[in-house]
């Protein structure tokens, strides 16, 4: 490539002419300037004229090939600022555990990086620091949240990442962390759970647990359910949509079938109320955090090991699958966003599946398909 020099500009360090587009700014400071699309000029400072010229040549080649990317927006914004914006604009309506992982990102050194320095290498450093203190499942949730923020920034805010630096294709997740739970209630565990929950100082605790088993709702959904959301005539429940539950393109409440067991439970509860106005909450159990603490204590009193309230959604989904054998119909009842999500919650007992096969053969004969 022909040298681009101007005799009017001399490099004091070497006595040689500076390449066109390079300006001496002081000891060890050589600013390279290049005009890009729209007539704008971009510039960068280097420690030598040789490095400045190399940048100019590389940038020119990228412009000619249509591969140039203006990274100035990435230089002006930090990871902390990007996450803050995501929280303000996209997480206001959310009340779930994803919000709880935001502080872990903001308190890590990765938050101080400019976006231009948010590379896969930097994200791997974040992963390894987190892995030294938290479980693999927690680390995966935080990596996936960071990846979701970056992807949203690319798709909605035109942040010019060349590619998502936190994507699973760029940063390997901890092995085995995505293992699905398969905790089910066995034997008399459900009976023992109800007996101990009935002794709670909050009388609706036992009804809340029974409803979780009968309807398979998420804890937050049941916690915010109001009597106006229950339609006994149409056998349905109405839930406000959130971005956690569904794609942003969907609008309006989500209507789900009300199961017979849940309907009987709610009718009994309504009859016991001195007031059940449309705006009243169906379940009076206090805050979700206080309930979680009580539930943990109660399960220990009942002698139930490794049981979380969310495990009841696994239990409910597996029980409802006996009624709704079509997975698409089952998904409408439970509110899972897709079949893959549903599969994580459907945990049939092996003896139940074997019994189904035996029952089929008893009706159709051995060996018949």
Automatic annotation (TrEMBL):
Highest taxon of source: Bacteria
Alphabetically ordered keywords of this record: DNA integration, DNA recombination, DNA-binding
GO biological process, alphabetically ordered: DNA integration; DNA recombination
Cited PROSITE patterns: TYR_RECOMBINASE
Signal peptide interval: none
CDD domains reported for this sequence: INT_Rci_Hp1_C (cd00796)
Pfam families: Phage_integrase (PF00589)
InterPro entries linked to this entry: DNA_brk_join_enz, Integrase-like_cat_sf, Integrase_catalytic, Integrase_recombinase_N, Tyrosine_recombinase_XerCD
Gene Ontology MF terms in the entry: DNA binding
Matching PANTHER family: INTEGRASE_RECOMBINASE HI_1414-RELATED (PTHR30349:SF94), PHAGE INTEGRASE-RELATED (PTHR30349)
Name the record gives this protein: DNA recombinase
Organism: Kozakia baliensis
């Amino acid at each position: 490539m022909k040298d681009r020099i101007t005799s009017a500009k001399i490099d004091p360090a070497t006595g040689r002419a500076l390449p066109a587009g390079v300006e001496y700014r002081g000891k060890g400071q050589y600013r390279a300037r290049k005009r890009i699309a729209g007539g704008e000029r971009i510039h960068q400072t280097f420690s030598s004229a040789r490095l400045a010229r190399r940048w100019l040549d590389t940038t020119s080649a990228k412009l000619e090939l249509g591969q140039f990317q203006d990274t100035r927006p990435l230089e002006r914004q930090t990871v902390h600022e990007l996450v803050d914006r995501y929280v303000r604009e996209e997480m206001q309506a959310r009340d779930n555990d994803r919000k709880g992982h935001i502080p872990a990102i903001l308190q890590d050194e990765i938050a101080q990086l400019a976006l231009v320095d948010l590379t896969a290498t930097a994200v791997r450093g974040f992963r390894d620091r987190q892995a030294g203190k938290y479980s693999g499942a927690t680390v995966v949730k935080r990596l996936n949240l960071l990846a979701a923020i970056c992807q949203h920034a690319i798709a909605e805010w035109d942040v010019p990442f060349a590619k998502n630096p936190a994507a699973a294709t760029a940063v390997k997740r901890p092995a085995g962390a995505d293992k699905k739970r398969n905790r089910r209630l066995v034997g008399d565990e459900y009976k023992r759970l109800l007996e101990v929950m009935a002794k709670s100082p909050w009388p609706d605790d036992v009804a809340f647990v029974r409803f979780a088993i009968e309807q398979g709702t998420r804890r937050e959904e049941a916690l915010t359910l109001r009597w106006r959301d229950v339609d006994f005539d149409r056998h349905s429940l109405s839930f406000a949509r959130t971005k956690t539950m569904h794609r942003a393109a969907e609008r309006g409440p989500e209507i789900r079938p009300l199961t017979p067991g849940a309907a009987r439970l709610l009718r009994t509860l309504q009859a016991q109320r001195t007031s059940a106005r449309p705006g009243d909450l169906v379940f009076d159990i206090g805050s979700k955090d206080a309930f979680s603490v009580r539930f943990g204590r109660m399960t220990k009193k009942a002698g139930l090991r490794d049981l979380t309230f969310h495990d009841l959604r696994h239990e409910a989904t597996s029980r409802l699958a006996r009624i709704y054998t079509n997975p698409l119909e089952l998904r409408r009842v439970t509110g899972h966003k897709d079949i893959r999500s549903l599969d994580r919650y459907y945990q049939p007992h092996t003896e139940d599946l074997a019994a189904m096969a035996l029952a089929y053969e008893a009706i159709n004969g051995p060996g018949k398909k």
